From TrEMBL:
EC number(s) per entry: 2.7.2.4
Lineage, opening ranks: Bacteria, Bacillati, Actinomycetota, Actinomycetes, Propionibacteriales
Protein name, per record: Aspartokinase
Cross-referenced Pfam families: AA_kinase, ACT_9
Biological pathway: Amino-acid biosynthesis; L-threonine biosynthesis; L-threonine from L-aspartate: step 1/5; Amino-acid biosynthesis; L-lysine biosynthesis via DAP pathway; (S)-tetrahydrodipicolinate from L-aspartate: step 1/4; Amino-acid biosynthesis; L-methionine biosynthesis via de novo pathway; L-homoserine from L-aspartate: step 1/3
Amino acid sequence: MGIVVQKYGGSSLADATAVKRVAARIVESRRAGHDVVVAVSAMGDSTDDLLELAEGVSPEPPARELDMLLTAGERISMALVAMAISDLGCTARSFTGSQAGVITDSVHGKAKIIDVTPGRISSALADGHIVIVAGFQGVSQDTKEITTLGRGGTDTTAVALAAALGADFCEIYTDVDGVFTADPRIVPSARKLDRVSSEEMLELAASGAKILHLRCVEYARRYDIPIHVRSSFSELEGTWVLPASAMVDDQGEAMEQAIIAGVAHDVSEAKITVVGVPDKVGEAARIFEKLAAAQINLDMIVQNVSAAATNLTDISFTLPRTDGQTAMQALAELQAEIGFESLVYDDKVGKISLVGAGMRSHPGVSAKFFSAIASAGVNIDMISTSEIRISVVVSEADVDAAVGSVHTAFDLDAAEVEAVVYGGTGR
Ligand code: ADP
Ligand code: ASP
Ligand code: MG
């Protein structure tokens, strides 16, 4: 039998009992005859706890040391899972990301995996062990420093291991039964998808559906790896995230897809407005070059029409809240040079996105989307679209109502059962 690669998230490893339950599941796969490689996340919310601890010690900890600290969370899990496996009569070897051969670039806090050299994993498997790998971390090729992959990054570790080891697919075990048409924590009537194309999953993940890390979906697409997202608390079949090549039926015909895959929301972004920018060639370039030099990824960008009397315009954009202060400092340095009036920072915003490959060919989707938001009494602040997505920024307090209204307007509510959230705090 082939290699099975599994990932267990923090919500599936909340305490000692949970660790033993996960170990039993892993041993079951081993006893079914597979070679088993497992990527684990830090227990429960312990990454957030470590971040709070760091904040208590230093307001702006050096990025290298923060990565050293955060990778400790996954090391705790890997060792505990390996111990619990040994009590069940199998042998397991745990490895840090670096030991497992996860090679990254050198950007602390959001490193990209550039290669996986799984020599130690292969030898441990050949010796009959189950392999447990600490997720969310690697070692930089250039600096040799320990890096982390960004929040939720264990999903990416798992898919990268599956690709490097030639596994047929990657199993992501979490605290819900699969990918739903919306986050079941805010829409209990959300429906589980049996399958979703990696193209749509990419847009959902990029729009804040934190069920899968964005890079993990990108990686799976590039290496043609199907992902099976499922619950570690039930035996139910989950959701298959399939590359385009696999979205075909037994006859090789393209499978019929629903027009809409789902609604995602994101309350992790902030909005910055640069007020009173002189409307002349090159000013926007200066602003965005400055932000790029500070390694900040922007999301939506809107420039207002300039007022005829003043020839001044406002430029607004959204970015991760965690980068908010760095961006404000960088822009403040430009104020004298560009001569804009002021900067306004707003982190009480949220983004709602409707995703579906059918948008390409079905007119009327935007009209229905905007009227659903209006009927929830919600005001829209910014709008952006891609070929298969419409997103709006609204006030954070309005996010849940708007998501619910859009979900219902597109007939996504499940007729029968409420979605189950088995664990986790949703943090
Ligand atoms: P893990 O600890 O397993 O990595 P996460 O908390 O990172 O778990 O991700 C699982 C959570 O993702 C779910 O509990 C759910 O609240 C959230 N989520 C957001 N959007 C969706 C969606 N479309 N389908 C399923 N879960 C979603
Ligand atoms: N422990 C890390 C986090 O909380 C990585 C992960 O869970 O995937 O973001
Ligand atoms: Mg996660």
